[in-house]
Automatic annotation (TrEMBL):
InterPro entries: ChyE-like, Class_I_gatase-like, GATASE. It comes from the Bacteria. Residues 33-188 form the Glutamine amidotransferase domain. Keywords: Glutamine amidotransferase, Transferase. It comes from Microcystis wesenbergii Mw_MB_S_20031200_S109D. It holds the Pfam family GATase. The lineage of its organism: Bacteria, Bacillati, Cyanobacteriota, Cyanophyceae, Oscillatoriophycideae. This is Type 1 glutamine amidotransferase. CDD domains: GATase1_1. Gene3D superfamilies: 3.40.50.880. SUPFAM superfamilies: Class I glutamine amidotransferase-like (SSF52317).
Length: 236
């Protein structure tokens, strides 16, 4: 039986949401554990699993870079890269952590505003030329971020961008898969999990736009399928 771990990076989000992530990417026949960057022994667990998911977080790889929590996570990802052939899927903050750990850069969103809503992704020619990715369908994804990847690590392949940020979906090599958005949830869960947390960041006019977007269709199936395949096969 394969063993996977969700590296849970939030100290605010609900445990129901944490468990939802595991259910969303599980295929039913594997064992899952939950790890945390708060664990001083996290790095030693880099060799223990067949795949990892790095969750989103209220933390920042910029503002919290000097904390033990973030620095330990980055060291863990570098250990996975250097000492294993294990695949890693990064979601939102997890995608940013992957980028920084492996040589990329993260900065504020281009418009300096927190992005909360539903975004349409534009697949790149590289993605469309890779038939094994099967990404020829439209894709929309929930977004919740104030920062984004501004420079990809060496050896990366950009798979999708959007009108909001250039680096929405990317591969580093063939076993580190990163999505800036949240393919694990739909509009209903955006309303339930994220909107109550981030309401203070928006004035009434901007909040009405968030509310409107939260009712848009979310077509995230291709991203979920890619993440599941990465974990199952070890690479994309």
């Amino acid at each position: 039986m394969k063993r996977y771990a969700l590296v849970w990076c939030s100290e605010v989000a609900s445990l129901d949401y944490r468990d939802h992530i595991v259910r969303e990417f599980s295929q039913g026949s594997e064992h899952w554990d939950v790890l945390t960057p708060a664990d001083p022994d996290l790095i030693e667990k880099a060799l223990d699993y067949d795949g990892f998911i790095i969750s989103g977080s209220e933390k920042s790889v910029i503002d919290d870079a000097g904390t033990a929590f973030v620095s330990r996570l980055l060291d863990f990802l570098r250990a996975v890269e250097a000492r294993t052939s294990t695949p890693v899927f990064g979601i939102c903050f997890g995608a940013q952590a992957l980028a920084v750990a492996l040589g990329g850069e993260v900065g504020r969103n281009p418009d300096r505003r927190f992005r909360l809503g539903v975004e349409t992704l534009d697949w790149t020619p590289d993605a469309l030329r890779m038939p094994e990715l099967a990404v020829n369908s439209a894709c929309t994804v929930v977004q919740s971020h104030g920062e984004c990847v501004t420079r990809l690590p060496s050896g990366s392949t950009l798979l999708a961008g959007s009108t909001t940020i250039p680096h929405e979906v990317f591969l580093i090599g063939d076993r580190f898969f990163a999505v800036q958005g949240h393919p694990e949830i739909d509009g209903k869960l955006l309303q339930e999990y994220f909107m109550p947390i981030h309401r203070p960041l928006f004035d009434e006019e901007a909040w009405q736009q968030v509310l409107q977007e939260s009712h848009l269709p979310v077509h995230r199936e291709s991203l979920v399928a890619l993440a599941r395949r990465l974990l199952d096969e070890g690479r994309l």
